[in-house]
Specification:
This protein has 722 residues and is of the alpha+beta class. The protein has 21 helices and 22 strands. The strands form five sheets. It has a six-stranded mixed sheet. The chain has a five-stranded mixed sheet with strand order 6-8-9-11-10. Strands 20-12-13-22-21 form a five-stranded mixed sheet. Helix 14 packs parallel to helix 15. The N terminus is likely disordered.
Length: 722
């Protein structure tokens, strides 16, 4: 049957569904890693997850993934059936995560078009050894082992019926949500799941893999299954669960004679599920209503009854007092409110919105509108409405790109677990504000920096268990990862309660590398200035190189990645108490509010959030230093002055401070006065990268197009203040 597979679209669905399952699995396991054991619900959920992955991988013929997921399924099958005592919980957690990692790595190969050739034998051997260990613990007490969870690969899906006195017969009808894509593949997965308990298994339509048109037929008429097995209805429902694809599962036990009728069930009574909607009940009732025969009119020839449909059942009894929902199915309403969209399409849509914003500025700021005496009342009203719509559209599109930090934070949880186990440190991990939403592109840029910071906190920051005991600290170290939004920015902090940064040790290393000013005493350096040395390339205070740190290549990568998206890193530490590494990043990279200004013959844009004040100054407020540096006194506070025209060597820029404008900028508690010729106004700015063929210029982060069609350079405040 492998030759009949039509893999178009199946692979994408396989990867998407299993990726979701693995994320949920890892989150569940890490949440319970510090418990004594998995609770019953978690055991059942992990078992079902592995069973689903095994089934879908079997369909796609990824044998190594099928084998390793089946072996972990065996472990949780045993835990579910036997409830053994004294199961080594942390060891079990590591086994589950190892299987999850293996499957994830193989899925990455699939996504990249590489062969799925990972060797699962080592993991399977470890799982066999673990399973044998917990089984021996039970057999020593004389308890009876549950039957083996045997997976037999049938040669075909129709299994010859061999009925025994224990055999039971079922008619099963599946209804899929109308928006379900590739319903035939989901139906095939159901068959694949049922075949493990089946003595006899038939389904209609039959050609669900070779015939793509069967998907539409299944959505329209449902999927019908005849099952002979030695199990109860509950076992069937455990294998076929209602989810985001299957709307309803109807299971009806019948007699052997009825089973042998196949999909023509004759005149069975109608089974109406009272959880169905009023419309569905009416349709089922009308479909099976008897037709009164007239004496004059001969009875029509009976038409063949359609194959198994919702009307082929009897009314199911409901337990007393249970609420009967006759309105539209709530689960369906919730499911239909979500849709998966390719990220590249979202990026393209965001680019189009950016072009729309630029075009709007070009129209509304057109020089032709500045003709004296021109009546623009109607135009201004229409322009205001256009601006409102474009702003709302922009907000909606940007909100669609916003995703919570939950998955990113969970990955950090995994890193803390793995590294702390290898280093032999007892560390608690806490997440705060993980539901904070950030632009998807931002998340892609901060994953690596966060990983470095979290690893440093575990390796550098938290002391060994013995050192914590000697210093009188709690036995367990703690790493806290938190996120919050503030003034259009996201603050993500990695905090530990370890030994903190050693100021003297950092200064000694900096002096050795020639980073200190010989004319400046150590005491003149503030703590924040000293801590910033650890972000320089090749700088590390670790005496020994470990698997996780000591090479001096981590923190400079953090700085590069963060600065590439307009963010910054703030470091705070207290010796013996701990450290806090805080990332300040923009919510989105696409569109920002900016102030347009002009210096010389060039236009510049500065993000509104870093501008604290606009000030008109007089010449007598300026202070000139012998080395050429300038300062200004404003309300008793002294600020360094940066003349933008002089900084970039522009022509014809304004030199008199009384004829220009001072902007007070504040970045990371550092303040500077930026002197420009004049301000143009506030505008929504579509951020465009500077072309790669132009050499990177300090103080510039991008460019944009203004309303008159000219190009303006976007200033990077961090680069100007350094």
């Amino acid at each position: 049957m492998a030759e009949e597979f039509n893999a178009d679209g199946m692979l994408d669905m396989y990867l998407f569904e299993n990726e979701q399952l693995l994320e949920q699995l890892q989150e569940m396991v890490l949440e319970q890693k510090d418990a004594d054991c998995f609770d019953e619900d978690s055991i059942n959920e992990i078992f079902r997850t592995m069973h689903t992955i095994k089934g879908s991988s079997g369909i796609m013929m990824f044998d190594n993934i099928t084998a390793v997921s089946h072996k972990l399924e065996d472990v949780f099958y045993y835990l579910r059936e036997s409830h053994p005592e004294n199961v080594p919980h942390l060891e079990l957690v590591e086994h589950v995560l190892a299987v999850s990692d293996f499957i994830s790595n193989e899925m990455e190969k699939i996504r990249g078009g590489d062969p799925v050739d990972g060797d699962s034998s080592g993991i399977i051997a470890e799982l066999d050894k673990f399973l044998e260990k917990i089984k021996n613990g039970v057999t020593e007490e004389g308890a009876e082992l549950p039957p083996e969870n045997v997976h037999v690969e049938p040669k075909q899906f129709y299994i010859a019926p061999v009925a025994t006195s224990e055999s039971r017969f079922y008619k099963i009808y599946l209804t899929f949500f109308p928006e379900t894509e590739m319903a035939n593949v989901h139906a095939y997965k159901t068959v694949y799941a049922l075949k493990e308990i089946a003595e006899d298994l038939l389904y209609s339509p039959e050609d669900i893999i070779s015939d793509e048109g069967s998907a539409d037929l299944i959505l329209k008429e449902g999927f019908r299954i005849l099952l002979q097995a030695q199990c109860g209805e509950e076992d069937i429902r455990n294998l076929i669960g209602i989810g985001y694809d299957i709307k309803q599962v109807d299971v009806f036990e019948c007699k052997a004679e009825e089973f042998l009728q196949g999909f023509d069930f004759g005149t069975q009574d109608v089974q109406i599920d009272l959880e169905s909607s009023v419309e569905e009940i009416e349709v089922k009732a009308q479909a099976t209503a008897p037709v009164e025969e007239s004496k004059e009119t001969p009875a029509p020839v009976a038409k063949p009854k359609p194959q198994m449909a919702p009307g082929d059942f009897v009314i199911k009894s409901k337990e007393p007092g249970k609420h009967k929902t006759l309105a539209k199915d709530k689960a369906k309403m919730e499911k239909t409110s979500f849709i998966s969209v390719n990220v590249s399409k979202m990026d393209q849509l965001m680019d189009l919105i950016g072009e729309l914003v630029i075009s709007e500025s070009v129209v509304l700021q057109n020089p032709d509108l500045k003709v004296p005496g021109l009546n623009l009342n109607s135009f201004n009203k229409a322009a205001a409405q256009l601006s409102k719509i474009s702003t709302d559209l922009q907000n909606v599109i940007m909100s669609m790109r916003m995703v919570p930090l939950t998955n990113t934070f969970q990955k950090m949880n995994r890193i803390v677990f793995d590294v702390s186990r290898k280093l032999g440190k007892d560390i608690e991990f806490e997440m705060v504000g993980e539901n904070t939403e950030v632009d998807k592109n931002i998340i892609e840029h901060i994953s690596d920096p966060l990983m470095h910071l979290v690893r440093n906190a575990v390796d550098h920051g938290i002391e060994t268990n013995e050192e914590r005991v000697d210093s009188g600290k709690p036995d367990k170290g703690k790493v806290t990862l938190s996120a919050r939004t503030e003034a259009g920015k996201v603050w993500i902090s990695v905090e530990d309660n370890g030994k903190g940064l050693d100021r003297e040790k950092i200064l000694a290393k900096a002096r050795k590398q020639g980073l200190l000013d010989e004319n400046k005493p150590d005491s003149a350096y503030s703590d924040k200035e000293v801590y910033q040395f650890i972000t320089l390339p090749g700088f590390s205070t670790n005496e020994q190189i470990t698997e996780y740190s000591g090479r001096g290549v981590g923190m400079d990568v953090v700085i590069q990645n963060i600065q590439s998206i307009g963010g910054m890193l703030d470091i705070d530490s207290a010796a013996g108490i701990g450290s806090v590494m805080s990332l300040k990043i923009p919510l989105t990279l696409a569109i920002i509010d900016g102030i347009v200004m002009e210096t010389g013959n060039c236009s510049f844009v500065m993000e509104t959030g870093v501008i604290k004040e606009f000030v008109r100054v007089k010449s007598d407020m300026m202070i000139q230093e012998p080395n050429g540096e300038e300062f200004i006194m404003i309300r008793g506070e002294c600020f360094p002055v940066l003349r933008l025209g002089k900084w970039y060597g522009l022509k014809e820029y304004q030199e008199s401070v009384e004829n220009g404008m001072m902007l007070i900028l504040e970045v990371e508690d550092k303040k500077v006065c930026l002197f420009v010729d004049k301000l143009i106004g506030e505008q929504e700015i579509v951020v465009k990268p500077i072309p790669s063929y132009i050499k990177k210029v300090k103080g510039l982060s991008g460019c944009t197009q203004l309303g008159d069609g000219s190009i303006a350079l976007i200033l990077d405040p961090g680069g100007l203040i350094e």
